[in-house]
Model the fold of this input.
Amino acid sequence: PVRSRGLMGGVLQGAFPLGFALASGAYWLLFEWIGWRGLLWLGILPAFLCIYIRYFVKESPVWVENRKRQREHGREVRAPFFTIFKPALLSTTLAACWWMSSILVVYNSIYTLAATWLQVDLKLSPAAIAMPILLSNLAGVVTCWFWGWLADGIGRRWSNIIHATGTCIIAPAYLLTKDVNWIIFGFV
Done:
């Protein structure tokens, strides 16, 4: 339903940090024994689940019926990809591209390089590196649900603005220190 799309989007988005938390737990427990190559092979295993889902999980009867009705009445939504680059949508498309590119640059420069930073600059052990990443991802599952719920209440624009503003304040506070406790707290 429209009233809970933000929350359900947050639940869906929360699956990513859950997977990342599992990966950091595997790093914490297994890196010393199987190394990065073993972890890579371990990470490939869930892909086999996609094969099972593709061939053995059926579409919901409601979806199948709705699709059938759309075809019968000629109401299938089919928009060519290049429609988003027409003058009426171009500014929105470019703004969305800029927003997502910015998010990806910030996310990858801070979040995915955090383990390397903790290992190289602060000389932490794999367990000490995995712990803040594990905790932040577990917190991420919950906060994805929270931000989705908040988006349903105050709107997606304002929930994103509040979240981005908080990040702009917190990230520099822990990135500019050498205190491991504050780094872990700020990162989480």
Q: What stands out?
A: The longest helix spans residues 15-44.
